[in-house]
């Protein structure tokens, strides 16, 4: 029998993109505007927000962390708490919506590797520790995420990557997580990668890093990665992409019940057309909640990006639950209804007893992890099983015959991708 465990409370939240000025709002922080934003988000029935200080604004010099900027972050967190919203904070911003925000002391004339240079590491450590410490006495503070998809700085397709090895990535993650713990002991500190960690051969941030380091595993699900292009906006693989990433993470997890946070997911047009965004939202949330051990779902994002701001990719402008005028959109109503349904009638998902084998090579490096990517044999076989109603999970090839591991996870049936290939 599987190891028994208690069901967890499911958390529902949103990545807070301010309605006025996007993340540039930190330049002229307006507490009243923030409070109005948070009022509208709380009205949707959400229970937390993920917030994004801009690293260059908070730490413009390696030895200067601006007290006033930190004070603004605490003000935002306190305003959220007044509205019943817990707060998760990302530190090293890092990369947001196609724009990089790196301090001048890491660039051009001061160019230093973000992951290995001793002076940069010391500056990052102190910055993360400082932010965590500023919120450590707030009971509504959930914890730190090291940064938003910081792994994109380490490899292609970034135009100017800071190349590192997998071992160097692990050392950086371990050191930065420890800095967060020093600042706010006992909180849920974690790291978050975009899906290259799961899908891109040779990427230095690996599935093992994602599933084993930090308090919980974060997955970011975006179907413009080839999923929607291949399967369409209403395809099973598209509507279950988030569920697939949640289950894929379990293949590498050492704890069979490690919590998984669907930390980013959104309905990107035109891959998900505007008139189908509400359906996509409803289906994505329902499918994610059908995965055991989900910590929570945090939608991207709160408010649409204003058309007055230039040079964003087109899909970034319309991802909000609300317009920039704080009008709830169909996708916002769909999420609010999904939250209400869950709270009215929560359920504990049954064990996923059918597993698909993942052979990505060495467990730590996963040199062939592209088999898991859209179009790859593991991804496509999983989608076929899901379409048949099998509720599949995934297991590493190295563990596919390990009776103790399979029993701990409740797995009774194991298939290779070849065994579920189309005839």
UniProtKB/TrEMBL annotation:
InterPro entries named among the record's database cross-references: GH
Source superkingdom: Bacteria
Gene3D superfamilies found in the cross-reference section: Glycosidases
SUPFAM superfamilies: (Trans)glycosidases
Designated name of the protein: Cellulase family glycosylhydrolase
């Amino acid at each position: 029998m599987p190891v028994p465990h208690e069901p967890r409370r499911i958390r529902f939240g949103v990545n807070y993109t301010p309605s006025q000025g996007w993340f540039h709002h930190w330049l002229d922080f307006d507490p009243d505007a923030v409070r109005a934003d948070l009022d509208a988000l709380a009205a949707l029935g959400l229970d937390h927000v993920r917030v994004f200080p801009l690293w260059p604004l908070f730490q413009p010099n390696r030895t200067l962390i601006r007290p006033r900027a930190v004070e603004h972050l605490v003000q935002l967190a306190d305003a959220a708490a007044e509205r019943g919203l817990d707060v998760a904070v990302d530190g090293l911003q890092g990369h947001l919506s196609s724009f990089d925000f790196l301090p001048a002391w890491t660039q051009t004339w001061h160019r230093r590797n973000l992951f290995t240079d001793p002076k940069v590491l010391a500056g990052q450590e102190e910055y993360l520790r400082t932010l965590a410490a500023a919120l450590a006495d707030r009971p509504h503070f959930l914890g730190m995420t090291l940064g938003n998809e910081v792994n994109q700085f380490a490899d292609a397709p970034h135009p100017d990557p800071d190349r590192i090895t997998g071992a160097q990535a692990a050392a950086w993650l371990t050191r930065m997580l420890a800095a967060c713990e020093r600042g706010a002991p006992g909180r849920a500190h974690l790291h978050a990668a975009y899906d290259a960690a799961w899908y891109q051969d040779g990427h230095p941030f690996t599935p093992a890093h994602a599933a084993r380091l930090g308090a919980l595993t974060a997955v970011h699900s975006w179907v413009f990665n080839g999923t929607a292009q291949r399967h369409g906006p209403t395809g099973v693989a598209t509507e279950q992409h988030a569920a697939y990433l949640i289950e894929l993470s379990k293949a590498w997890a050492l704890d069979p019940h490690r919590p998984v946070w669907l930390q980013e997911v959104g309905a990107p047009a035109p891959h998900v057309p505007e008139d189908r965004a509400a359906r996509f939202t409803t289906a994505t949330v329902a499918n994610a909640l059908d995965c055991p051990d989900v910590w929570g779902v945090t939608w991207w994002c709160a408010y649409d990006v204003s058309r007055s701001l230039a040079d964003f990719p087109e899909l970034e402008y319309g991802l909000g639950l609300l317009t920039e005028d704080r009008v709830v959109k169909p996708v916002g109503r769909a999420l609010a209804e999904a939250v209400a349904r869950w709270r009215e009638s929560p359920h504990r998902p049954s064990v996923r007893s059918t597993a698909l084998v993942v052979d990505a090579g060495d467990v730590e490096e996963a040199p062939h992890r592209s088999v898991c990517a859209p179009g790859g044999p593991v991804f496509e076989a999983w989608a076929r099983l899901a379409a048949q109603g099998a509720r599949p999970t995934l297991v590493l090839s190295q563990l596919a015959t390990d009776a103790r591991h399979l029993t701990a996870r409740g797995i009774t049936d194991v298939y290779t991708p070849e065994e579920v290939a189309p005839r």
